[in-house]
Each structure stands twice: as C-alpha cells, then as structure tokens.
C-alpha cells in the first residue's frame, strides 16, 4: 500500500550538496510512502513527517518507509532528527524502531539501513542495551541473520530515549557507513562491509517498524 504525502514546502526540505546546494520541496512526485501511513504533524515545537508501519506487513526489517525519490544517493552524509513513540497497540517486543534507509533501488527490493531501538538504551538488561543500534541490508541480511552469524558486529549501544529528538548522521563511503548521534565526534556504529557493495545507489527512506509512531524533521543530504 502506498500513500502520497501532500506538498508542504516549508516544514522539511532536503538540502543536497554536491558542487552546488539544492533544496527540494516535497510533492507527490518526489516523495511517497511505501508500506506505511504518513501525515504532517506538529510535535515538540517542530513540524515533522509522522510515519507508522502498515500493520498488513507482518515481517520485520522490510521496506517500510517514506521514500525520497528526488535524491540519488551513493556516497555522502545523511542527517535527520528522529523521534519515536510506542503506538497504543504496540506488541511487548516493540522498541521504538526508527531510522534511515539509503541506496534504495527503484522497486524497493534492495537497500541498506541503520536504525535505533530507543527503549533498549535505558534497559536494566545489559544485553538489551547492546542492541540499541542496528544495521541491516535488505533483503538478505536482516537483523536476525546478522545477529546469528556475527553476534555484536552490526549492533551497538548509545544512550537515547523515547519521545526525545535524536540527531542521526550517517556517513557513507564505498562499503563503509558510520552512524553519529547527537553531534558526537565519534561514531556509535561502524559498518565496514555494506552488503550491497561499493556501487549501489538510490533513494533515501525515513524508516520505521512495528509498534512505532515515528517522526522525522530537518533532513539534509550531502552527496560526494
């Protein structure tokens, strides 16, 4: 199911920097909702895109995002502020899943993603705390396969909370991606072997999973 986001030029623009800067307004041609429902909302003093996964999608780590089609991203930097809440009907395993998908191909059948699990960061269980950040690569390398084959390699801890704005910055170069949170100088997660390799490129996605009411604002993309 796809739902088109209506044009709203002032609340959230993309700045694409290469040899020049370009602002892209959101309209029915440049942005689409893929397996999610979306709307424009005011939250904690900001206007943002609200994104909720379509409950008909039962699997996890799927293409469930608002897709920004006017960006062809391969290498560079993606920054966005995210905030997640649990929905009223969230299952007990919901963690406030929210993040960024990138290098999304045209039919959404391949992409990379880094996302957060804010509830884990304040858990009393250290093992859950270690699962606060997750990388996955769709379709073949979802969280469960990566966790089984390389425990701890594609996950990490960082402090964060539900219902608080979190600044995400993903820096991508070739097969490497680094995630920086809240303007920290050091990355919270380093992925050295993006599964789709050096040459993949494509759109950016604002990603959520089950039980999450996700909000995104201040998106900026800089392409190398």
Give a count of the beta strands, DSSP E runs of length 2 or more. 17
SSE class: mainly beta
CATH architecture tag: Sandwich
CATH topology: Jelly Rolls
Number of domains: 1
How does the major sheet shape up? 9 strands, mixed
Strand content: over 45%
Computed over alpha carbons, the radius of gyration is: 16 Å
Name of the CATH first level: Mainly Beta
How do the helices and strands follow one another from N- to C-terminus?
Answer: EEEEEEEEEEHHEHEEEEEE
Number of helices: 3
Mean pLDDT reading: 89
What do we call the CATH homologous superfamily? Exo-inulinase, domain 1
What level of helicity do the residues show?
A: under 10%
Low-pLDDT residue spans: 1-11, 19-25
**Cα distance, first to last residue?**
33 Å
Task: Describe this structure as you would to a colleague.
The protein is mainly beta. It has a single domain (2-223), classed as Exo-inulinase, domain 1 (Jelly Rolls). Helices cover 7% and strands 48% of the residues. It is built from 3 helices and 17 strands. Strands 2, 3, 5, 6, 8, 13, 14, 15 and 17 form a 9-stranded mixed beta sheet that branches. The protein has an 8-stranded antiparallel beta sheet with strand order 1-4-7-16-9-10-11-12. The relative contact order is 0.26. The model is unreliable at 1-11 and 19-25 (pLDDT under 50).
Give the tags.
224 residues, Jelly Rolls, nine-stranded mixed β-sheet, eight-stranded antiparallel β-sheet, 48% strand, disordered N terminus
How do the helices and strands line up, and which of them pair or pack?
Blueprint: E1 2-3, E2 14-17, E3 21-24, E4 31-34, E5 36-43, E6 46-53, E7 65-73, E8 76-86, E9 98-104, E10 111-116, H1 118-121, H2 126-129, E11 133-138, H3 143-149, E12 155-156, E13 166-173, E14 176-181, E15 189-191, E16 202-208, E17 212-223
Parallel strand pairs: 2-17
Antiparallel strand pairs: 1-4, 2-3, 4-7, 5-6, 6-17, 7-16, 8-13, 8-17, 9-10, 9-16, 10-11, 11-12, 13-14, 14-15
């Amino acid at each position: 199911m796809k739902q088109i986001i209506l044009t709203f030029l002032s609340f959230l623009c993309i700045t694409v920097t290469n040899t020049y800067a370009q602002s892209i307004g959101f309209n029915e041609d440049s942005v689409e909702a893929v397996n999610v429902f979306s709307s424009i909302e005011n939250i904690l003093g900001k206007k943002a895109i609200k994104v909720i996964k379509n409950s008909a999608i039962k699997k996890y780590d799927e293409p469930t995002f608002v897709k920004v089609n006017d960006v062809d991203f391969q290498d560079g930097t993606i920054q966005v502020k995210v905030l997640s809440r649990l929905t009223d009907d969230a299952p007990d395993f919901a963690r406030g899943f929210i993040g960024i998908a990138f290098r999304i191909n045209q039919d959404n059948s391949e992409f990379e993603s880094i996302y957060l699990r804010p509830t884990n960061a304040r858990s009393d269980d250290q093992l859950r705390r270690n699962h606060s950040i997750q990388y996955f690569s769709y379709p073949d390398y979802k969280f469960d396969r990566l966790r089984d084959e390389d425990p701890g390699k594609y996950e990490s801890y960082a402090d964060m909370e539900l219902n608080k704005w979190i600044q995400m910055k993903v820096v991508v170069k070739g097969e490497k991606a680094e995630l920086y949170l809240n303007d920290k100088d050091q990355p919270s997660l380093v992925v050295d072997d993006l599964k789709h390799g050096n040459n993949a490129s494509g759109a950016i996605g604002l990603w959520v999973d089950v039980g999450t009411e996700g909000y995104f604002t201040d998106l900026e993309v800089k392409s190398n």
